Amino acid sequence: MSKFTSLFKESWVEVTENVTWPKYSELQSSSVLVLVASLIFAVLVGLVDLAFKSGLDLFYSSF
């Protein structure tokens, strides 16, 4: 049990004293960037999926 408490205490000191946390504005801008990139990627994947579906529907309807 002492190993667990030692690990917890050392982890707490590491997180509270040695970690550099980003500012709220940095987190906000990073989150917006991830959101925009995810939406662009989703639209591109959707367009590729639509193109393949249309192409395969056209191909299979010819038989």
Automatic annotation (TrEMBL):
Transmembrane segments: 32-52
Keyword Transport among UniProt keywords: yes
GO MF entries: protein transmembrane transporter activity
Keyword list, A-Z: Membrane, Protein transport, Translocation, Transmembrane, Transmembrane helix, Transport
Gene3D superfamilies: Preprotein translocase secy subunit
InterPro entries: SecE_bac, SecE_sf, Translocase_SecE/Sec61-g
GO cellular component: membrane
UniProt-listed Pfam families: SecE (PF00584)
Subcellular location: Membrane
GO biological process, one term: protein secretion
Entry protein name: Preprotein translocase subunit SecE
Organism name: Sandaracinomonas limnophila
Gene designation per UniProt: secE
